[in-house]
Amino acid sequence: MTLQERFDNKWMPEPNSGCWLWLGAYHRQGYGNITVDSRSQLAHRVSWFLHHGFMPDPKIKVCHRCDLPSCVNPDHLFLGSQLDNMRDCFSKGRGTRADHKGEKNVNAILSEEQVLSILDDHRKYREIAAVFGCSPSTIGMIKKGRNWPHVYEQWLQSHEANNRLEAKL
Q1: pLDDT in tens, 74-118
Q2: Counting beta carbons within 10 angstroms of the beta carbon of residue 142, is it exposed (0 to 12), middle (13 to 18) or buried (19 or more)?
Q3: If 0-12 CB within 10 Å is exposed, 13-18 middle and 19+ buried, where does residue 7 land?
């Protein structure tokens, strides 16, 4: 069986979106996988190869206009750099953005109030982490200003102001 035949047996059209949904094996991030020359390949990259006649350099991404990782419809694919892919992502309102910091970040498990409390806490990192349900390394990153830097800067400025006031008294 040829690669084209194997490929064509592993997708199904989705009538509403026009996507070709991959029915074969999947990569952990939802992308289809197909074996080519005893190596696992991403199905959407193989679709590009089969329909456009060349495999792009590995540094070049085969991106999805439809934003569906399991889609292998060549009309829904375009070539771009990682930067192009991220710009496409952000233009569609997906992904983590600079204005989605702190509590607005979908991955945040702490509030700004909790972060301020962590910054004021002098216990061991593992003890603080147990209270807030996060890892000791997260506590360390907060205390060093690497996580939640906007809150850290605010906290630092307020403590410096308090220290100056205490020095005057």
Answers
A1: 999 999 998 888 888 878 776 655 556 777 766 778 999 999 999
A2: buried
A3: buried
